[in-house]
Design goal:
Length: 630
């Protein structure tokens, strides 16, 4: 392997240093959880009898011996999510695989699993980000029975994997394996889908035409095939060492997928017996860096600028956007997958997929090779791919050269010398921008602001023709405290139409954009948010805003003291509408205590003031202290 890139080494050392106390505390708690032995040995006879009362006789006999591992399955199954529909059959596969190892497996519990594709642009989207922490909590509820020797997590989509990850880390004294379901087969070309969406946004095709196009895209069991948050999750679980190798992008309706699910169960049993590869040891400062780099190298979802912070914090590791930005500056962009290109994840996998990316990043010195994974020591196992040979599952080395360099390239000849995510900051606060989908000529925009406080108002202004000009659309009061920080992907087609007309267009918001955010430059997750006194609350219609993704700046132009003005106040109608209906009233406490976007937008951790240190970045008097939850 090549020598580790010095910037990667420097960022890792900085993360390790600022995480010294929180990481030591986490490991101390995990070690203490191990001291009493396996959970089943601590349960009384009545406890243990309850745990197996509903099991078949064979499993009861195994359990009565008290010596064989019991695997706890946490499933996010529902059959509304195409990506999660295959999980209906997975528990039976897992239980049978465990029996073949003279062990047992049980569904310990289920978690909610929202489909952002269904709630996009709807009130339910305001619960989407909060659902991640609910999933983490429900994972904790499932595993707190303390009757398990290892965990097996079944999840794929946007908030589900981060939530399972966070919840499982609370039981990091156990080995934990993640088993995905894989993507659906390819539907209509992504470029055609985007074309029809743009036409519909301009009222040039009817709703029936749009529906037929969407059904042609989302058409069968499996993950949506664009490279959004769900598929970014799978890339990170691979490079984080929690999957069986190259498991992410195998179709669900195949014998290979079922064999991989069985293999994941058997691996969990093996780790339970040996006590190796505890999740607390697999997820470390090094593996978190590897996950960030994998995301950057493939142009993954901006949602992980939030999720990864909370995920890392669950292991006692403190990261922020400066860390991600500095890693991005030395991470080669190896993949072009929609929305960063025209190909989907199936074409990406066919070109070489995860195994190719893992090998290239390791050999170029962009990731740590000396990590612990569920496969043992070192990252090399993830250079392999699975296949079925005479009915048996075997692994072989992945391709050494990309089979389609329009989709996947080596580190020696990347699409870009830098990764897909950048930090922008200035008198408007700190934000992130996904540049991998934005052409270089569109990465610098200076134009008058058009300010809105709801997505619906912005879309109406577009429909009325009021945005047919050079414009920076500012959408505020969309942060976690305001309304749960919904994705604002419904604006993407409209902004793309304006850009295609030749206007200079950018988007600035304290809300989120989807992992499917497209070709228009968007400074998102602006922190502090407007409701928390962020500078974005002081912007007015007509103010000149400059978004410069190349220089990493987000500033007003010609305004000496932006925060010297009175701050905008959220309208009563908007505030009231975001507090009730569609289940929103159940999350009032979350909105009150949630941390900032850069702190992970979580309710799961207690605050430790001053944990984030931006001393290596230019001071910004308009940005309030960003304390990481601890």
């Amino acid at each position: 392997m090549a020598r580790l890139n010095p910037v990667v080494a420097e960022v890792t050392d900085r993360i390790r240093e600022k995480s010294r106390r929180t990481r030591a505390d986490y490991l101390r708690r995990m070690d203490a959880a191990n001291e009493g032995g396996v959970g089943r040995a601590k349960l009384s006879c009545a406890n243990w009898a309850h745990a197996f009362a509903g099991s078949p006789i064979r499993d009861k006999l195994t359990a009565m011996g008290g010596k064989q591992p019991n695997i706890g399955i946490v499933t996010a199954y529902n059959d509304m999510l195409s990506a999660h529909q295959p999980f209906e059959r997975f528990p039976d596969i897992v239980r049978q695989a465990a029996r073949e190892m003279d062990a047992t497996a049980q569904v310990a519990g289920g978690t909610p699993a929202m489909c952002d594709g269904v709630t996009q642009g709807r009130p339910g989207m305001e619960l989407s980000l909060f659902s991640r922490d609910v999933i983490a909590m429900s994972t904790g509820v499932a595993l707190t029975h303390d009757a398990f020797d290892a965990g097996l997590m079944l999840g794929v989509c946007d908030k589900i994997v981060p939530g399972l990850f966070m919840g499982a880390l609370a039981f990091g004294h156990l080995p934990v394996v993640f088993a995905p379901a894989g993507p659906m087969p390819s539907g209509i070309p992504n470029a055609e889908k985007a074309r029809v969406r743009a036409l519909y946004a301009q009222n040039q095709v009817d709703r029936q035409t749009l529906l037929e196009s969407e059904i042609g895209s989302y058409h069968s069991p499996g993950t949506c095939t664009f490279y959004g948050t769900a598929n970014s999750n799978q890339m990170m679980m691979e490079l984080g060492g929690l999957h069986m190798p190259s498991t992410a992008f195998v179709h669900p309706e195949t014998g290979l997928r079922d064999a991989l699910t069985a293999a994941a169960a058997k691996r969990a049993v093996e780790l339970a017996r040996t006590g190796e590869s505890r999740m607390a040891d697999v997820i470390s400062e090094k593996s978190i860096v590897n996950m960030i780099v994998a995301l950057l190298a493939t142009g993954g979802s901006t949602n992980h600028a939030i999720h990864l912070v909370a995920m890392a914090r669950s292991a006692g590791v403190l990261i922020d956007w400066t860390d991600m930005d500095q890693l991005s500056s030395v991470t080669p962009l190896l993949a072009r997958v929609y929305p960063n290109g025209s190909a989907d994840v199936n074409a990406f996998q066919a070109a070489g997929g995860v195994a190719f990316v893992a090998r290239e990043l390791a050999q170029a010195g962009n990731i740590h090779s000396d990590v612990t994974t569920i496969m043992g020591q070192g990252i090399e196992a993830y250079f392999q791919e699975p296949s079925m040979v005479d009915g048996e599952l075997v692994w072989r080395d992945g391709v050494s050269e990309s089979l389609d360099t329009d989709i996947l390239r080596p580190a020696s000849n990347p699409f870009d010398r830098e990764g897909g995510l950048r930090l922008v900051q200035g008198d408007l606060g700190r934000a992130v921008i996904k540049v991998s989908a934005v052409k270089p000529e569109n990465r610098i925009v200076e134009a008058p602001a058009a300010v809105f406080e709801t997505q619906e108002d912005a879309l109406q202004a577009f429909k009325d023709g009021h945005l047919n000009r050079d414009v920076v659309v500012v959408l505020r009061f969309q942060g976690p405290r305001a309304n749960g920080m919904p994705e604002l992907h419904s604006l993407s087609p409209a902004l793309s139409v304006l850009q295609d007309k030749g206007f200079k267009v950018a988007f600035v918001t304290d809300g989120r954009m989807s992992g499917a955010s497209g070709k228009t430059p968007a400074a998102i997750h602006v922190s502090p948010e407007a409701l928390a006194g962020g500078p974005i609350a002081h912007v007015r219609d007509g103010d000149i805003i400059r978004l410069d993704a190349e220089a990493g700046t987000l500033t007003t132009v010609g305004i000496a003291d932006l925060t010297g003005r009175p701050a905008a106040v959220r309208s009563d109608a908007h505030a009231e509408g975001s507090s009730w209906g569609y289940g929103r009233e159940l999350f009032g406490a979350f909105r009150h205590v949630v941390s900032t976007a850069e702190e992970g937008a979580s309710v799961c951790f207690q605050p430790t003031p001053g944990a984030i240190d931006h001393k290596d970045t230019p001071p910004d008097p308009n940005v309030v202290d960003r304390a990481v939850d601890a």
